[in-house]
Design goal:
48% of the residues lie in helices and 13% in strands. The protein contains 23 helices and 20 strands. Strands 9, 10, 11, 12, 13, 14, 15, 16, 19 and 20 form a ten-stranded mixed beta sheet that branches. Strand 3 and strand 4 (93-95) form a beta hairpin. Helix 20 (555-608) packs parallel to helix 22. The radius of gyration is 28 Å and the shape is globular. 45% of the residues are buried. Residues 165-588 form the GS catalytic domain. It comes from Lancefieldella rimae.
Amino acid sequence: MANDKVSREFGTLLFTDADMQERLPKPTYKRLRDVIRHGKPLEIDIANEVAHAMKEWALEHGATHFTHWFQPLTGITSEKHDSFMTPQGNGTILMTFSGKELVQGEPDASSFPSGGLRATFEARGYTVWDPVSPTFIKDEVLCIPTAFISYTGEALDKRTPLLRSQLALERHAKRVLALFGQTPERIVTNIGPEQEYFLIREKDFEKRPDLILCGRTLFGCEPSKGQELDDHYFGAIRPTVNDFMKELDDELWKLGIPAKTKHNEVAPCQHELAPVFEQGSLAIDNNLLTMEKLKLLAPHHGLACLEHERPFDYVNGSGKHDNWSLAADGDNLLEPGDNPGKNLRFLVFLACLVAGVDTHADLLRMSIASAGNDHRLGANEAPPAIVSIFLGDALSAIVNDLMSGADVHKAKRTKMDLGVPTLPKVLRDNTDRNRTSPFAFTGNKFEFRMCGSQQNLSDPNVVLNTIVAEQCDRFATDLADVSESKFTEQALKWVIDSFKDHERIFFEGNGYSSKWEKIAEKRGLPHFRTTPDALPALIAPENIAFFETYGVLSENEAHARYVAKAEQYAKVLNIEAKTMSYMTRHMYLPALFKYSGKVAESVARKQEIGITSQAELDVTRKLTEGIDGIYAAVGELEAKNGHAATLRSKPQTQCEFYRDEVIPAMERLRKIVDEMELICGHDFWPVPSYNEMLFYV
């Protein structure tokens, strides 16, 4: 049976806790659990025994190589494969794997983005095993999740600051719970990333250099049909897509990734996959694996997967909702319970999160800033670039009652009678959904909706974890000397004061409306419209001090990340500008020359026999004007992009020049080319159109 197959195959390529318990001596297993759960040092004798058990398990599952699997500042994963084979000198080999090979590797640190922390001649870097994330087998390679640091000990990756932020949050959340008389063994964040993506025919993808090189279409006129009929969202899944999704589920389940929900999204060819929540760093690892599998498996079905935030204009882009909650030994600290207004522990953690989001809205916005996400945010399909919090009617009423000093009423869930006896009555939730809110409470978690679809979620979760850690620290410090008899009163006062101090961050209305921008401005909420606006927040003195206080980033590491992000923004736009130039000169202009020549030839032949076609004359004139306009526009773009390259030593200036000069030049070129697409004959146009790509069935 199918369900037996799922349970039988789930996690077969994952070296699980059960595998460790089965294969390791009991004392070694216990010591390893102490390393994982309590942060105790990893001794080499333990590492050797674990390495041997891992190797034997991996060989049984067909693995021939191992790799340290890490996340450099590019945001994607990196790996170098080494075989288990060790020649013995007599023509034979042994398959070996030592504790040292498990625990530490040494890739070239100069070939990855470092934001200036490493020069080309300073090549040494280290990968270090993270035992919290289980190892797994991918394509006959044992993959060992690792951190990546420089020779001088600075973090060169996404994982290390994430782990530091989780430790900071756990440390201060435990202090809060201690005031409630609770002493949990572990406090972890739980994350559920909702991954959106597009699928198009692979043969269409291969004909579009912009999709191949940039992940998005740089040209393309508006399709005849978009998403206006609302007929794709939750619609019947196409057979080809369904086959792809089935294979994806199978592959993810083998890796122990709890893929749960799949459906069509709003835009044509857009889909979503959502997993069951997992511990923070593991959930991010699994999301990166999911993104990799999406791209690798799509060609098996004649498809190409697009993970860019805005692969097509005129229809919705793709995001990755970051569902975030906090749990103490499995007990969700953001669960309101039956009576949220009387649930003091819930209110304290809610107030901590509210205060953190308002205080550090600039860092949250910075954490999701990218060239791709700039196309999506505020585009009437995604949250605006202004950070606000949506609580829902019931919770908002409780917060307002607390702030006004009114009696807090218990929120009641009502049943809806649908008027059809055979249909059961529906229990209405206390919280509606507000899809326009960037940070929304959704029952027992918060959903951060500003994240881009191709983004590594480490950055936003580093910020989320650290801002909540700071507020937990503030609460625990403020109430440390309060007597037990006064604790409830003083804790509630602290909660109410926090809500009042940060009331401006609450917004229950339509985040897409222009009115909200004006309201937000009056409230003094920051509005960073673009990536160059948002990035400097990372190196603001108060934010550097904030990260240093909680041991998440040093000043050098913060500056390195700022430079790496700025360089990434500039490089993406440089590639896009050069791709536009290439496509214009090598594809669009030759096609228009050919087509206009055909039309002009037809005009001349007809005139020879005394026939004048006004339509053909008009088309010839428009084509000539368009060709001249394109030629001028591509020259302008190339000049501006060339100047941008001279600003490489000034990252902020270069980013702003791309935003203010290069992007408008790209838009002007696209506008003229797209106008010509509507005039040029279909058989002459060199690339598949939106109509062809978005509606391939």
